[in-house]
């Protein structure tokens, strides 16, 4: 099936990228992305096939005026990642015996598989999950991307 048809499947549980279809990993393994180096994408080493000319980083001249005439409205998502397959680690309450300089909040950052390896204790190699899959870190999300 085509990538677009798979992403636009009406039934959410059958849609490419849903937890039932294999999550983000299923998207990365779609034939349309064959040969794409996801690590290079994360490191922003992959150049886009086309980059439209802009006068400045804030240039909106290529956006339809229907959208640029609208007044911006601040909104807060009711549920971060609603409809996305991700995991978030629990915040750990600081303990009295925590070492000064340690951060309980630092442990709240979720893991992500697929971007850049987390060095082991010796600074070499990548940490592994329970199933032996290398863990890769992104802030706030865990996406199952295979290296």
TrEMBL record:
<keyword id="KW-0808">Transferase</keyword>
<keyword id="KW-0418">Kinase</keyword>
<keyword id="KW-0067">ATP-binding</keyword>
<feature type="region of interest" description="Disordered">
    <location>
        <begin position="97"/>
        <end position="133"/>
    </location>
</feature>
<dbReference type="InterPro" id="IPR017892">
    <property type="entry name" value="Pkinase_C"/>
</dbReference>
<dbReference type="Pfam" id="PF00433">
    <property type="entry name" value="Pkinase_C"/>
</dbReference>
<dbReference type="GO" id="GO:0005524">
    <property type="term" value="F:ATP binding"/>
</dbReference>
<dbReference type="GO" id="GO:0004674">
    <property type="term" value="F:protein serine/threonine kinase activity"/>
</dbReference>
<dbReference type="InterPro" id="IPR011009">
    <property type="entry name" value="Kinase-like_dom_sf"/>
</dbReference>
<dbReference type="InterPro" id="IPR000961">
    <property type="entry name" value="AGC-kinase_C"/>
</dbReference>
<protein>
    <recommendedName>
        <fullName>AGC-kinase C-terminal domain-containing protein</fullName>
    </recommendedName>
</protein>
<feature type="domain" description="AGC-kinase C-terminal">
    <location>
        <begin position="34"/>
        <end position="96"/>
    </location>
</feature>
<keyword id="KW-0547">Nucleotide-binding</keyword>
<keyword id="KW-0723">Serine/threonine-protein kinase</keyword>
């Amino acid at each position: 099936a085509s990538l677009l048809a798979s992403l636009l499947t009406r039934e959410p549980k059958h849609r490419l990228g849903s937890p039932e279809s294999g999550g983000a990993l299923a998207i990365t393994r779609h034939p349309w992305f064959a040969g794409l180096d996801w690590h290079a994408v994360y490191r922003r080493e992959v150049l886009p096939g086309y980059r439209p000319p802009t006068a400045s980083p804030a240039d909106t001249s290529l956006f339809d005026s229907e959208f640029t005439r609208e007044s911006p409205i601040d909104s807060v998502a009711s549920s971060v990642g609603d409809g996305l397959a991700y995991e978030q680690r629990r915040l750990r309450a600081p303990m009295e015996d925590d070492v000064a300089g340690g951060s309980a909040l630092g442990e709240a950052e979720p893991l992500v598989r697929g971007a850049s390896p987390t060095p082991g204790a010796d600074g070499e190699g990548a940490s592994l999950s329970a199933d032996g899959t290398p863990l890769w870190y992104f802030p706030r999300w865990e996406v199952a991307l295979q290296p």
